[in-house]
Write a structure and sequence with these properties.
The chain is α/β, with parallel strands linked by helices. Helices cover 42% and strands 18% of the residues. A hairpin with a 2-residue loop joins strand 15 (167-171) and strand 16 (174-175).
Length: 244
Amino acid sequence: MGFIKYIKDEMRIIKERDPAIRNSFEVFLYPSFKAILRYRIANKLYRKKHYFFARWLSQRTVRKTGIEIHPGATIGKGLFIDHGNGVVIGETTIIGDNVTLYQGVTLGGTGKEKGKRHPTIGNNVMISAGAKVLGSFTIGENSKIGAGSVVLSEVPANSTVVGVPGRIVKRDNVKIPREDMDQIHLPDPYLADVTSLKKENEYLKNEIKKVCSRFEEIKSTCDKLDELDRLLAELKRQEKNQVS
């Protein structure tokens, strides 16, 4: 009964989050379904200290689905991995309930820490394609990580993060005060920075032009003074000759 309930739950989750599904039985074709089911088995083996068999099952799953979930990871209910190829979930990762991951997501460590070295993902978090979350910190619940982002530090709940390194551009679903550069419903802080830099660059160019113009005026004045000094020296020389 537990297995049947698990399949029904997976059918419901996939139907809710993937508009491509047309038939309930398609759930058996989803790499996410296969990978998470095998992870549940491998995780039980891992917790009973059957490490070799747990890793063996995990590695077979990688070859068949392209999804690598370490059997030591802790995963709550309702995880959905869309497409899934290239997804990596590290050993000490903790994932809450109703989390959605897209292809190419990495929940990894920095390679320097011991013990808890992978991220903790709160409930109802969405991590978009190609995003990397690296280190032992928490992504707060109801947060969104934009595609291709690299997150290296704590993210508060109800936040939206984009960029490399990841920067928070929304909190509690309200934009952090900055120029409104909404790109596909996610602000683009880098475009805002580039625009600001372009404005500053134009300002500096204009200031340099003013300095150069002033320098030319000063140089012209200096040339006139030099000419005046030359004429005065010539007059003094002539007066000296006349006196002699």
